[in-house]
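Entry 14. Structure prediction run on the chain below.
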Amino acid sequence: MSENNKNNSELNTFGFITSKLRTGIITAFLAMQTIAIVVLFSRYSALQDKFQAKQDELYRMTIEYIRPSVQKINQAATKVDTISNKVDSLTTRLQKRKK
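Output returned:
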């Protein structure tokens, strides 16, 4: 109780700060903090969406850049596979002829 009286006497020094005004000031500060949190969260959300969009765009660009090389490698691998199958069948035929 004595601390409450001490706080009141300190605030009464200014004369114009009443308990209702004090409550209003505290409520205003809490409202400003809540508004600031909401604004910061909305900005964070917007930035996160932009970041995700940029990341998706970079991913698509990377795939488009790499696609021709991958297709060339696939064609070369298919040719090598075909040639190795032909060589395998030829060596099998040669081994059968030797027997």
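DSSP finds two helices and no strands in the chain.
Filed with the rest of this week's runs.
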